[in-house]
Amino acid sequence: MKRILGSVTALVGLGGGGYYYARDVEPRLLTTTSENLTSSKIPPELDDFTIVLFSDTHIGFHYSLEQFADLTDDINRLDPDLIVFSGDLVDAPDTYNWNNELIQLLQKLKANHGKYWIYGNHDHGGYGTETVKNVMDKGGFELLQNTHKTIKRDRGQFVLAGIDDVILGKPDLKMALSGADPDLFTILLAHEPDYADNTAHFPVDVQLSGHSHGGQVRLPFIGHLYTPLYAQKYVQGKHVLDEGNLALYVNRGIGTTRLPYRFFCRPEMHIFRLKS
Asked: Residue 189 belongs to what domain range?
């Protein structure tokens, strides 16, 4: 609470212009971060295979369906082979006004090799577990809850795995990778980035996470003032663990939560390109 109060105090201290910018301007300045995932485990058939990651939309809290509609257009313009969502669809499932428009927007997202998602803590919160799953199912997204899929293009293959939410779910990475070929390039979806310290003990090459929102409010020379549980060690960007064997990418998310502000922390989606 002290850190959240500090964020508010800092924004007020910036004056009316800074407050307006943090509330009404920067949250709409979407950044697309492009990364190459290079490995000898990636076969030539998968060269330039593209994956779009988006996370933490928190629809209903300072983020509207109109904005989400714009996001779906932005994603489709990237023409991805695969779309992944790393959790927290709406901010408060128990009070959100669920409707078919959200389902239709999820259906609008197109990827030739599928659309996958995992639970975030807000998806489980507010008794949202089954409600969110029902909406994502109807939207054409497949849930990876302690399980994996082998993604294929021509003769090329890689493993896409996902775990349950760390805070409110029952994550089991051993179960998620059960039956997966450890020699294939493996990507894990895990909502909370700090889980990477556990992931490093498994045959996973890349972990994709959200949850942190990058801190939402970041001050020059100080950085973020607050991040949630299990996003306190790895807050944003790329991190290399296990002597280079695991790469963690932390997405800053799309929406906001707790406070409707972003400052020096623009919303973000990722596009990853596999490189053999």
From this structure: 2-275
